[in-house]
Write a structure and sequence with these properties.
The chain has ten helices and no strands. The longest helix is centred in the first third of the chain and has 26 residues. It has two domains: 55 residues, Homeodomain-like (Arc Repressor Mutant, subunit A, Orthogonal Bundle), CATH 1.10.10; 138 residues. By secondary structure, the protein is an all-alpha fold.
C-alpha cells in the first residue's frame, strides 16, 4: 500500500533527524573542516545520494544542525512567556534561567561543541557564525527582553539592553571559562556570578 502524504512527511522527518544525529557525532568528533560527508552517511546508515537529497552540502547540514539544537534550546526559554511565570518573583526566575543556561552549555552538551567549532571556523566560514547568531543568540535576547519588559516588578530603562547584558555575561562566562580554558586564569564562582548578575537587573 502506498503511504499517505502525512506518513511520507513523517518518514522524511525521521530520516532527516537520523542524518542530523549522525552529523552531530561527526562534527563533535572531527570539527567542521575535517568532517566527512561519507562518514556522516555511514553514521546515519544512508547512501550519499540520500544524504544529498536532504542536505545540499556540508554547510547546509551544519546550519540545519544549528537550527535544530537552537530551536530545542529556545523552547526551554518559552516558560518565561507564561502568565504564571510573570507572577513569580523575578529574582527567582532570572536565577533559575541563568543556572539553566550555564548548565546547558557546560561540559559535554552538543551545542557547547558547536559553539567551539563556530568560533574556530568563523574566520573561514562566517555564514556558519551568522547562522548561530540568527538562530540562537537573537531569539534568546528577544525572549528575555520580552520577559523583562512584561514583568511588573522589573523597571529597567531599556529591556533589550538589559537582556543583552544578562545573556552576554553568561555567554562570556561560558567562552572564557569553558571554551578558552580560563577557569584558573579568571576564576569566579557560579553562584557569585549569578547573584551579581540578577542584582544588576532586579533592584530591591
Amino acid at each position: 500500500m502506498k503511504p499517505t502524504k502525512a506518513e511520507s512527511l513523517h518518514q522524511d522527518s525521521e530520516k532527516a533527524e537520523t542524518i542530523l544525529i549522525g552529523a552531530q557525532q561527526e562534527f563533535m568528533a572531527h570539527g567542521y573542516s575535517a568532517a566527512s560527508m561519507n562518514r556522516i552517511a555511514d553514521a546515519a546508515k544512508v547512501s550519499k545520494p540520500t544524504l544529498y537529497s536532504y542536505f545540499r552540502d556540508k554547510a547546509g547540514l551544519f546550519t540545519a544542525l544549528i537550527e535544530r539544537l537552537s530551536q530545542r534550546d529556545s523552547k526551554a526559554l518559552f516558560w518565561l512567556q507564561n502568565a504564571q511565570t510573570l507572577e513569580e518573583s523575578p529574582d527567582i526566575v532570572l536565577r533559575e534561567l541563568a543556572t539553566k543556561i550555564l548548565e546547558h552549555f557546560a561540559g559535554e552538551q552538543p551545542l557547547f561543541f558547536l559553539i567551539r567549532i563556530i568560533i574556530g571556523e568563523s574566520g573561514r566560514f562566517p555564514a556558519l557564525a551568522r547562522a548561530f547568531v540568527s538562530n540562537a543568540e537573537k531569539q534568546h535576547i528577544q525572549i528575555v527582553s520580552q520577559y523583562l519588559a512584561a514583568h511588573p516588578q522589573i523597571c529597567v530603562p531599556d529591556p533589550e539592553i538589559a537582556a543583552r547584558v544578562f545573556m552576554g555575561t553568561l555567554i562570556h562566562h561560558i567562552i572564557t571559562q569553558e571554551i578558552l580554558h580560563g577557569r584558573d586564569v579568571v576564576p569566579v564562582e557560579r553562584e557569585r556570578l549569578i547573584e551579581g548578575l540578577v542584582a544588576l537587573i532586579v533592584k530591591k
